[in-house]
Amino acid sequence: MKYHQINRDLFIKNRAKFTAQMKPNSVAIFNSNDIYPVSADSSLPFAQHRDIFYLSGVDQEESILLLFPDAPYDHLKQILFLKETNEHIAVWEGEKLTKERAFEVSGIKSVIWLQDFHKTLKEIMAYSDTMYINTNEHYRASIETETREARFVKWWKETYPAHKVEKSNPILQRLRSIKESEELELIQKACDITEKGFRRILQFVKPNVMEYEIEAEFAHEFLRNRSQGFAYTPIIASGNNANVLHYIENNQQCKAGELILLDVGAEYANYSSDMSRTIPVSGRFTDRQKAVYNAVLRVKNEANKMLIPGNNWKQYHVEVGKFMTSELIGLGLLDKADVQNENPEWPAYKKYFMHGTSHHMGLDTHDYGLLHEPMKANMVFTIEPGIYIPKEGFGIRIEDDVVIQEKGDPFNLMRNIPVEVEEIETIMNS
């Protein structure tokens, strides 16, 4: 991996938090992701399943983590199963984790080669009553490919039908949503790399540049700072492309007078950043573009004040909608009649701001977190209001990543990334 090794104490703490919530005499198993084929003998780059990484720090394919806190023998309480490396693998694929190296990364002493997994599991199942299976229950999840985790769950249920079943996901949703200090440092690192990329393109963008050239500038800066690359597929949307919320083609020319909506974030050590900025191709905003931009910025600043412990995510969005409605009236995009006659299920402001304002962020860009539960300190949220005006040929979104504090306003992890009109214009014209 490109990133510096993470202190294993983080993963030791994470496992302790998880096992403390397991039922007596129960086992939990977590599988790594598959390496997905493309065609012939090619495959997609490996990306580790975030749950096994969160609990072990292992960033390698064909790995399994087993937790059995009530095991009768110490060597069965926490086990890493890894594919045994050899000289052939070392030559063709490079270094894989040895048992000693796995302990350094994870803090787990019991490391068993994967070929002995079924034999070991059979012994453990004889001692235990309950299995925690790890299903993906994220509210945005849409899965059409059978995962390694899903294959394991299917096999385990057929092989051990008499055991009780519990779910790991509700525990992980709560644990992963509240970040440890080490995690906040890693997310800050990802945000700092994103800042470097953004400052680079502010001095690169000019009329007639291609969207993919801007994407390439970000990629260059991310990789040279130990990032694996983009935390998610980047959006480089010039002109009316910005009004397609998930525009990812990035293949058009940026023309003089247009705006470019950038929704880009670097990852670092599997942790995400998520930034949106909107900049003028020619280095200066028009008066109308500036008016809309500052309206979005004011909504972002008001939303920021509401990300405090105890607040409810759904009501928060209702309140943000009120601020946005006021700004849209001020811009002449809505009038009072539009608001009076609005459908409560789809308020008038949704014509110009149709997505949510905030989501959890961390190991996943849309990270774990139960949205019906109150906000808590050390949760990381995005704030990303936008106004999209197809008739005027532009859309504007501004997004920062913030950490909820025990008291006061959240801490902005992107506080050093230029966001004011004047600062953006000054850098672009320097």
TrEMBL record:
Q: Which domain of life is it from?
A: Bacteria
By its UniProt entry, which Pfam families does this protein fall under?
Answer: AMP_N (PF05195), Peptidase_M24 (PF00557)
The chemistry this enzyme catalyses reads: Release of any N-terminal amino acid, including proline, that is linked to proline, even from a dipeptide or tripeptide
The answer to keyword Hydrolase applying to this record is: yes
Question: What EC number(s) does the entry state?
Answer: 3.4.11.9
Q: Which GO terms describe its molecular function?
A: aminopeptidase activity
Keywords of this entry: Aminopeptidase, Hydrolase, Manganese, Metal-binding, Protease
Keyword Calcium in the entry? The reply is no
**Domain Aminopeptidase P N-terminal stretches:** 6-142
Which cofactors does it use? Mn(2+)
Primary enzyme class:
hydrolase
Q: Which family does it belong to?
A: Belongs to the peptidase M24B family.
Output this protein's name: Xaa-Pro aminopeptidase
User: From what organism does this protein derive?
Assistant: Flavobacterium ardleyense
- Identify the taxonomic lineage of the organism of origin: Bacteria, Pseudomonadati, Bacteroidota, Flavobacteriia, Flavobacteriales
